[in-house]
Amino acid sequence: MSEDDITLTLTLDGDQIEVAKGATLLDAAHLAGVDIPVICYHEATSPNGLCRICVVDVDGGRVLQPACVAECQADSKVETRNERVERSRRTILEMLNASVNLDEAPEIQAMMTDYDADDARFPDANLREHTVIDDNPFYVRDYEQCVLCWRCVQVCAEDAQFTFALTLKNRGHDTSVATAFDISMTESPCVFCGQCVGVCPTGALKPKLEWGLEQGWSAAELRQNTRRGRKRSPEDDDGE
Ligand code: SF4
Ligand code: FES
């Protein structure tokens, strides 16, 4: 019998299920058709257990387990949503809402509603402040909307592109995704594959065209500002 053939049984929300050894609690929930909210987890990236929104109760243990990284244990009893779990998820959402602009994060807003999160729970908290970075023709970065899920950094690195254009800078409340030494994206190793934009769960990373439309740019401005190295010419003002 190979490692892959080994299975174990556990109880998830009252139902006994069988999973492969090494399966995470999130895998088990998917298998059972149970929905667990995620923010930092994405099927295209390696789970890091950063946001903790996916926590579940295993055997009533002292600490809730992050379902995206915690492996299933044989004969355990898992509750994916009880009072403890709800309280924990609600607090995480309230803290996130107190420090990040979630206006363009509809999935997280839906979680706020689902978990009855109070958007005024921490009135003295400071929203993180960043200026929109518009330093290339392809996409803009608005880190006021960044939930630090790390997905963009991962797809830029070992999970997909192996380009390593992104990293983190500063610490604590001032932590932000950035290029190394804050160089512009055009000076960085970025190849503008767009995968970071594709996995971002908020409006922090946005195609330049979409952003320009929101800014009310004219057709000529859109054309000029989304073409690498293109110089503006009189023909660009033809109002197309
Ligand atoms: S920019 Fe988007 S993908 Fe990157 S860490 Fe922030 S929220 Fe996540
Ligand atoms: S989704 Fe599991 S810790 Fe973020």
Question: Keywords for this structure?
Answer:
240 residues; alpha+beta; Ubiquitin-like (UB roll); Alpha-Beta Plaits; disordered C terminus; binds iron/sulfur cluster
Walk me through this protein's architecture.
This protein is α+β, with helices and mostly antiparallel strands. Helix content is 25%, strand content 14%. It folds into 2 domains: 1-127, Ubiquitin-like (UB roll); 139-237, 2-Layer Sandwich (Alpha-Beta Plaits). The chain is built from 7 helices and 9 strands. The protein has a 5-stranded mixed sheet with strand order 2-1-5-3-4, sandwiched between helices. A two-stranded antiparallel sheet has the order 6-9. A two-stranded antiparallel sheet has the order 7-8. Strand 1 (7-12) and strand 2 form a beta hairpin. The model is unreliable at 230-240 (pLDDT under 50). Bound molecules: iron/sulfur cluster and FE2/S2 (inorganic) cluster (FES).
Question: What order do the helices and strands come in, and which of them pair?
Answer:
Elements: E1 7-12, E2 15-20, H1 25-32, E3 55-58, E4 65-66, E5 77-79, H2 83-99, H3 106-114, E6 139-141, H4 151-156, E7 167-169, E8 176-178, H5 195-199, E9 205-207, H6 208-215, H7 219-225
Parallel strand pairs: 1-5
Antiparallel strand pairs: 1-2, 3-4, 3-5, 6-9, 7-8
Residues 146-152, 177, 199-202, 204-205 line the site of iron/sulfur cluster.
Task: Give a short summary of the structure.
Helices cover 25% and strands 14% of the residues. The protein is of the alpha+beta class. The chain has 2 domains: 1-127, Ubiquitin-like (UB roll) (Roll), CATH 3.10.20; 139-237, Alpha-Beta Plaits.
